[in-house]
Design goal:
4 helices; alpha+beta; six-stranded antiparallel sheet; about 240 residues; single chain; 10 strands
Length: about 240
């Protein structure tokens, strides 16, 4: 009888360990609220979305005519649930405030989970040499967990006379795993995307929420393990 009880206890402990071990496997990519590790545990949910850095500084001079501008945020701004909103929040304008056509590039958050806090801006055509431009980031940019950016941001710069052959390292690594929006140009364009290569307009109802599916799968697995353990114990007791 003692050996039987000991065997049951060991079996239960093993099942519990298996359940905890299985949980991370089904965990989602996080909402970007963690300390940069993608845990997305929500402990920093009250921290606002912030633009942490830009590949060019405000007031930069001699910027390449075909420069790729990388913006880094502190949270996930590439998730499918916020792309429809965020694709409208980035603009490039000339000195007169006219919209300049751009390619707005988001990493594919479902495939490249480590790159969920970046967005890239490329001019659709070479910019004019020795000309002033401004990037504007609206105060409506949203993170996956629903937090909104702390405030609007602008980055002014002046082009040089040369193009660059350097590729952005992250974009090179991403390859085809990107979502690209092309915007119009001109006085009345307002940088609204007119042509999209990647996802269509999306909302939370447009497709499955992979994070929710992962959580449900983890719960189901744990329940199955517990049920299996209970059945196993009952069978063992009947045999005794």
């Amino acid at each position: 009888m003692l050996n039987h009880k000991r065997s049951c206890i060991i079996t239960i402990l093993l099942c519990i360990i298996m359940a905890f071990a299985a949980s991370p496997v089904f965990a989602d990519d996080g909402d970007g609220t963690g300390a940069g590790d993608g845990s997305g545990d929500g402990k920093n949910r009250d921290i606002p979305l912030t633009l942490e850095s830009s590949s060019i500084s405000d007031g930069a001079q001699d910027v390449a005519l075909n420069e790729t501008i990388q913006l880094d945020f502190n949270k996930n701004i590439c998730n499918v649930t916020v792309l429809a909103n965020n694709k409208l929040c980035f603009h490039l304008t000339d000195a007169d405030g006219n919209a300049v056509a751009i390619k707005l590039i988001f990493p594919d958050n479902q495939v490249q989970k480590e790159y969920k806090k970046q967005v890239f801006i490329q001019p659709a055509e070479d910019l004019k040499p020795e000309t002033s431009y401004r990037i504007a980031v609206d105060n409506t940019v949203m993170a996956k967990n629903g937090t909104v950016i702390d405030n609007a941001h602008t980055i002014s710069f002046t082009t040089g006379t040369q193009r660059t052959d350097k590729e952005n390292k992250i974009l090179k690594e991403l390859g085809d795993y990107i979502i690209t929006y092309e915007t119009a140009s001109g006085e009345n364009a307002n940088s609204v995307p007119v042509n999209k290569d990647g996802l269509d307009d999306v909302s939370e109802e447009s497709g499955p929420d992979m994070a929710s599916i992962a959580r449900i799968a983890a719960v189901v697995l744990i329940v199955l393990i517990i049920a299996f353990t209970a059945v196993f114990i009952i069978i063992r007791r009947k045999k005794q």
